[in-house]
Design brief:
Order of helices and strands: HHHHHHEEH
CATH superfamily: dinb family like domain
Strand order of the largest sheet: 1-2
CATH class: Mainly Alpha
Strand content: under 5%
Largest sheet: 2 strands, antiparallel
Structural class: mainly alpha
CATH architecture: Up-down Bundle
Helix content: 55-70%
Shape: elongated
Radius of gyration: 17 Å
Length: about 180
């Protein structure tokens, strides 16, 4: 099975129109459900297994949760029309991700679902001025609007879903 292009090598086409907001919101809303469909019948030990130093299934989901917490700050940046978006610091991520390996899949998915829904409710309530606001992304100094943030989230979610699908398929091949 083919592996996805490394996330750091992806280039995203920002600048989509506001008319795409419902579609991007729907993609972001669907991630916890797609994860559940992909993983619900997997053995708990398979979900916490690390292969060749890569993240386990539960650590991938933990990464999405960690990012979701940071995206809340970005919504505030857009609400307040800040010229520059906050930096998302994931330097402590490895330590916190390891804790997800001992968690139940249902609990991890529920946490992601609840945080994602709260985030999307905030985005839905953004006034027109905030939805149209352009702020500088701190890493690449690229202009970013809430639409671009949602595109980034949707694409990043899909990247992890594809990675997890390949990981699960590899585990199944190892058993045969």
């Amino acid at each position: 099975m083919m592996r996805p292009v490394p996330w750091s090598q992806r280039e995203l086409p920002f600048g989509r129109g506001l008319d795409e907001l419902p579609v991007l919101m729907e993609r972001a809303r669907g991630t916890p459900h797609r994860l559940r469909a992909l993983l619900q019948h997997r053995a708990p030990e398979a979900l916490s297994l690390r292969l060749s130093g890569t993240w386990s299934v539960l650590e991938h989901i933990g990464h999405l949760i960690a990012l979701q917490d940071r995206f809340e700050e970005r919504v505030t940046d857009f609400e307040l029309l800040r010229p520059r978006l906050c930096v998302i610091d994931l330097s402590d991520q490895e330590r916190t991700l390891a804790g997800h390996r001992q968690r139940d899949l249902g609990d991890v998915l529920e946490e992601l679902h609840l945080k994602r829904m709260a985030f999307l409710r905030r985005v839905e309530r953004l006034p027109q001025a905030s939805l149209s606001h352009v702020a500088a992304h701190p890493c690449k100094d690229r202009p970013m609007r809430p639409m671009d943030m949602l595109l980034w989230i949707a694409e990043h979610d899909d990247h992890h879903l594809a990675t997890l699908r390949a990981l699960v398929a590899g585990q199944e091949q190892d058993r045969t």
